[in-house]
Design a protein that fits this description.
The structure is a homodimer of 442-residue chains.
Chain A lengths: L3 E5 L3 H13 L4 E5 L12 H5 L14 H6 L2 E4 L4 E5 L4 E4 L3 E4 L2 E4 L3 E3 L12 E2 L4 H11 L4 E5 L3 H12 L3 E5 L12 H13 L3 E3 L4 E6 L3 E6 L2 E4 L2 E4 L3 E3 L2 H6 L9 E2 L11 E3 L4 E4 L6 E2 L4 H15 L12 E6 L2 E7 L2 H7 L4 E8 L10 E8 L6 E8 L3 H13 L4 H5 L15 H12 L1
Parallel strand pairs in A: 1-2, 1-7, 2-3, 7-19, 9-16, 10-11, 10-16, 11-12, 18-20
Antiparallel strand pairs in A: 4-5, 5-6, 8-17, 13-14, 14-15, 20-21, 22-23, 23-26, 24-25, 25-26
Helix pairs in contact in A: 1-8
Chain lengths: 442, 442
């Protein structure tokens, strides 16, 4: 009899797992349960449709439902797995009874943290997640004059930019002194804030959300600094692991609330794997668990979980977290620690920074590229990087995460060769200059 | 008495050296001799002005002559150093007598290899090098209907693209079966050739140059496959080290004809350094000397030579040669070996390839990115990479050269984390997919 693997969740982790199971065991019976109407679309693209960078939500769909049928993956839409019994190895599906499994993959994702203020049940509060709901909200955006984005999380930063591009008077409310303050340093975000101002965005930092005001629909947002009229509030709070199902079944969770998994993405229960935002993964430098990484992490974790659930063997490593996104008119990104995070964790560091350019300075389309490198004081081993610029940020972030992982020093980076060709790269690679500046200062 | 360092050559290596000397010893007397009217312009930008991507030659100038005066660097323009006496430590300057030095940096660059066919003294033969001459040739281009580019070297590839963009009927003549055959693999260059065809370029591969035909001015180019009418021939032959001055003085040269230098960029004579295209540098994997690298290499070598000539200490390492350029409508690039080079050298390898994309597939401006990785068969250590695509090639080439240098394996690259954000990076990084494909095939 063929192996049956049940996957709970149809996001990047769940569908990565489904593919991983089939890759390891083409004969496996793969059954996916999702609470939504769709799988295989890109939720990360939603802000860009709202911002009109992308013209149609249909473009976010990556594969047809038939493609999964053809691949032998049995996806159950609008289905809720209400509980799992780890001893009997069965899952209970609302309205459909129980299904037994040989292995189980939990890819149950995240929930936005409750903003925890009065008025949370009013209309006009938008949690960006489901593409069908996003399509409805997109129509609402045409009617909105003023909007408040609650919290300058990465999604918050993208939504501020999107709503401003949409021509909506956009306010950003965040209790921190600058956007993405848990990840990015203030010098990296300063150009983003400048470009938001050019777009007419009103930022409210060091400002606490106090209430959503209105009768049925939100009409204003109450903050510690006053009331902001708004017909829409986009709630971009922290992503909390959605793991009530697994906790009820007895799976162990860690300090972040995410499932504890080993390098095979196996949970504390035999035959049960987990992947994506419902898990936590150790930081490669500190071992401190991290939760709420990116879609790319979720997909790779899902694939690893699926391969192992399907009888194969793959490991997933501790993470060094390259990150990046468009923000205002800039691209921001980095890897591992910034100055703010390192300082908060008590990790000592030296800094090397450089303001460089992406192409020859006379070549059309040349953009600034600022690189900041953090290194351990004595060894000068890289421990993190932050960047802001116009292009080439993602590729540098990927590289610098590997540089942290493999223990490159500022000296290694200062001696790095680089492509120089007017249309694609400047004589002086900003990473090299930043590393040399760090050496000179150390 | 202050140290006097004489630099022969005002290109990237020479001016890098001048800066390096001053960095090591701000009191040093730095005297630069150049045969040209200018220093501190970007010769690499010349094809792009011809192609009208850049609107004015003035934009290629990077610093004013006054800037060097202000920096205490004494540049002698239109000056020829006719000989150097390594025992007496003097240089002889045509029309200006001798000048003594405490240290000497030779940055005498390259000459294009003589095409070695009849008609080489006709008018209408353009060797791309000097910006003042390029300005004159640019006027000629307005009068040219048909042009032949001789050899599909990197410069040849850039000039073909430029002349085609300029609306000139452009022919490319090369004895090899595909362009840049000494560096790039045919699968990498195929899209470039396709895009040239779209621009109306006529390629003549496996075709030998036999003569330039004409009375005073070239009127046609004779090849093994027939006669090509042309009012202009752009000679893009191999760059040979221009080191007659050093050889006459007794400096040792290596198998490529370039000066042999140690890791301090010191030649065989005490106090004499060399940098740039007149030198040869070992390949990091094979130790085989390479000559004729890029402006970025020349500048870094010059800086190293200058710092050491100025009494400081810096080393330059063996090279892994990240490379890249615009070609037709694509960007090509790579690091270390391609399949063709590895095969020619008898280096065994396995290959992992992937056709990926630069952004989310639904995001405006998304471009294809093909990555091909070469690895040692048993260890699966990376030995080279080649790429063709629309963006992000330079940054990946820089990274992959470091990956070769530091012995990353296909497994390391397959487990690499990557930024996923719709506007800047796809869910699947092409390097990761190529590495995984290589693992699956190995």
């Amino acid at each position: 009899m063929s192996r049956r693997v049940v996957v709970v969740g149809g996001g990047a982790a769940g569908m990565g797992a489904a593919g991983g199971i089939k890759a390891a065991d083409p004969n496996a019976e793969v059954v996916v349960y999702t609470g939504f109407d769709d799988v295989a679309y890109s939720p990360c693209g939603i802000p860009y449709v709202h911002g009109k960078e992308i013209d149609d939500f249909q473009r976010l769909f990556l594969a047809s439902k038939q493609a999964y049928v053809d691949a032998g993956i049995d996806v159950h839409y609008n289905s809720e797995v209400t509980s799992v019994d780890l001893t009997r190895k069965v899952a209970y599906v609302a309205g459909a009874g129980e299904i037994s499994w040989d292995a189980l993959v939990l890819a149950t994702g995240f929930n936005y943290a409750d903003p925890g203020v009065p008025g949370g049940t009013l209309g006009g509060l938008y949690y960006v997640k489901n593409i069908r709901e996003a399509m409805e909200w997109d129509k609402v955006l045409d009617t909105v004059g003023q909007a408040v984005v609650v919290q300058a999380s990465p999604l918050g930063v993208e939504m501020v930019t999107a709503l401003a591009h949409r021509g909506i008077e956009t306010h950003l409310v965040d209790p921190s002194p600058w956007p993405m303050s848990e990840i990015a340093d203030p010098d990296i975000m300063a150009p983003v804030e400048d470009s938001w101002r050019e777009l007419g965005v009103k930022v409210h930092f060091n400002t606490t959300l106090e209430a959503f005001l209105g009768t049925d629909e939100v009409r204003a947002v109450q903050t510690s600094e006053g009331e902001i009229p708004a017909q829409l509030a986009v709630i971009c709070t922290h992503k909390e692991p959605n793991n009530a199902l697994g906790i009820a079944a007895g799976l162990e969770v860690g300090s972040t609330g995410g499932f504890i998994v080993d390098e095979r993405m196996a949970t504390s229960a035999p035959g049960v794997f987990a992947a994506g935002d419902c898990t936590e993964i150790p930081n490669g430098l500190t071992g401190v668990p991290l939760q709420g990484l990116t879609g790319s992490h979720a997909y790779a974790q899902g694939k690893t979980a699926g391969i192992n659930a399907g009888g194969g063997s793959r490991t997933y490593s501790a993470v060094y977290v390259p990150w990046g996104t468009a923000a205002g008119k800039w691209i921001i990104g980095g890897a591992s620690f910034g100055e703010t995070t390192a300082t908060a964790l008590g990790v000592p560091f030296v800094v090397g920074s450089a303001q460089g350019i992406s192409r020859a300075r006379y070549y059309p389309g040349v953009k600034p590229v600022k690189v900041k490198l953090l290194a351990e004081p004595d060894s000068l081993r890289l421990i993190g990087a932050q960047m802001v610029g116009g292009e080439g940020i993602k590729e540098r972030a990927d590289f610098l995460a590997m540089a942290v992982k493999f223990g490159f020093t500022l000296g290694d980076l200062a001696r790095m060769e680089n492509v120089y060709s007017p249309a694609i790269g400047a004589l002086n690679e900003p990473i090299v200059v930043a590393a040399q500046n760090g050496l000179d200062a150390a």
